[in-house]
Amino acid sequence: MPRLVVVSNRVADPRKTAAGGLAVALGEALNATGGLWFGWSGNIVEKTDAAAQAQPQLHVQRAGDVTLATVDLTQEDHDAYYLGYSNGVLWPVFHYRLDLADFDAGYIGGYRRVNRMFAQQVLPLLRPDDLIWVHDYHLIPLAEELRSLGCRQRIGFFLHIPLPPPLIMAAIPAHEWLIRALFAYDLVGLQSQTDLNHFARYVYTEAQAEQAADGRFSAFGRELRVQAFPIGIDVDEFASLTQGREAQETLATMRDQYAKRRLLVGVDRLDYSKGLPQRLRAMRSLLQRYPGNCNSATLIQIASPSRETVGAYNDLRRQLEGLCGSINGNYGELDWMPIRYIHRTVARKRLPGLYRASRVALVTPLRDGMNLVAKEFIAAQDEADPGVLVLSRFAGAAEQLRDALLVNPYDSDGTADAIQHALHMPLEERQTRHQRLLANIREYDVHWWQRRFLESLQQ
Ligand SMILES: O=P(O)(O)OC[C@H]1O[C@H](O[C@H]2O[C@H](CO)[C@@H](O)[C@H](O)[C@H]2O)[C@H](O)[C@@H](O)[C@@H]1O
Ligand SMILES: O=c1ccn([C@@H]2O[C@H](COP(=O)(O)OP(=O)(O)O)[C@@H](O)[C@H]2O)c(=O)[nH]1
């Protein structure tokens, strides 16, 4: 296989557990080919005269056989490219939240500038037969920038977030430019069949595209292959984390503290796409309508801090704090609180213990590209006594995980009914559902995803 070059906004050392399963899987393909991973260093530097005139300095470091190459961003570029256009325009619109989009005309310039700078920086590092794999909404125009600099290598793109229906997409002032930019890639991968349908409808109606054979679309004078590749997790790696010291300690502590209670778990970035207020309202409805759960059902909700300088994320934090206070205030007892809300990131090594100690996982996003927490919860369960996954029908994962209890997160009473069902599900039904879910995430794991995408890109 040719050398793999991965380009993404964030770069992680694939040898570190904290980096997560995606980094592990990409690291596997990068390692096998002595590959290169290029992206933002995570550092923000003040704009200096040197930075204004010259290209930013490249930081190069080795991680086993993989080369990590990163660049810093100036405050101005970070604000326009990352906070502004990526997380203030693309993220909300692609998650159907037009009400939260900030179409400030100044952002797009920074987005294009950083994409151009990434292209200029990575180009001299490329070899003629490299295979380039670009990730996510931060870097949609990267291939176009690379092509304009003469790059002829094969370039693939994977979108980790949902692709919205055409009329929602059309709310972005530069929507045609964005979709045209995708046609500079050789292959575009999406998370789900639904996303693929949205793409097809957009290019037929807005770009007069024609469908050629084999998942190819022809528009803007180019042909592009678009396919769904649902991302998975490394099931064995996650299952082995379950046996680790940190996970075992967490499991023992949880079992000890909640021996007489029913534990539910939610693990999310504190993001408005994750449906957290709706989830808390469903918990309130559960306690109201099924009072047998009072003094028993306890939701541990991890809300890990994310994109805190974007206004909508601060508003959400305040809303959650208010809801938790009101539910705990109304239903809590001296020795029991229905919601344990933790606004911190929990180390990845501890999560399997928390998942395994929980009878039910609540994964109820309003919209989500995939949602890996749903898959991690399944991988961490004890097969003899597994917990139950309550999953939003609007998560990409719902296309695959049909044996979860699928819910509409906007319907708090309906979700409460599903939680009640999950809490009281007989062992045999839990085992049957879990076996099927586990078989699915094993077959379509992150290694499958990575192999299928790269095979398709090479074809
Ligand atoms: O880099 P941040 O701004 O801190 O955000 C974290 C990541 O969030 C998004 O994750 C998505 O990718 C997951 C894996 O494919 C998927 O399961 C999930 O549904 C998506 O929301 C984002 O796409 C990443 O680029 C961010 O790094
Ligand atoms: O406190 C936390 C919260 C989340 N995660 C991890 O972050 C990832 C979240 O991925 P997901 O696809 O569910 O959503 P995203 O945040 O990427 O939108 C999962 O691997 C979680 O295990 C973590 O390690 N600690």
TrEMBL record:
Signal peptide: none annotated. It comes from the Bacteria. CDD domains: GT20_TPS. It is an enzyme of class 2 (transferase). GO terms for molecular function: alpha,alpha-trehalose-phosphate synthase (UDP-forming) activity. Keywords: Glycosyltransferase, Transferase. The keyword Endoplasmic reticulum does not apply. Pfam families: Glyco_transf_20. The keyword Metal-binding does not apply. Pathway: Glycan biosynthesis; trehalose biosynthesis. Its EC number is 2.4.1.15. It catalyses: D-glucose 6-phosphate + UDP-alpha-D-glucose = alpha,alpha-trehalose 6-phosphate + UDP + H(+). Probably involved in the osmoprotection via the biosynthesis of trehalose. Catalyzes the transfer of glucose from UDP-alpha-D-glucose (UDP-Glc) to D-glucose 6-phosphate (Glc-6-P) to form trehalose-6-phosphate. Acts with retention of the anomeric configuration of the UDP-sugar donor. PANTHER family: BCDNA.GH08860, TREHALOSE-6-PHOSPHATE SYNTHASE. Belongs to the glycosyltransferase 20 family. Homotetramer. This is Trehalose-6-phosphate synthase.
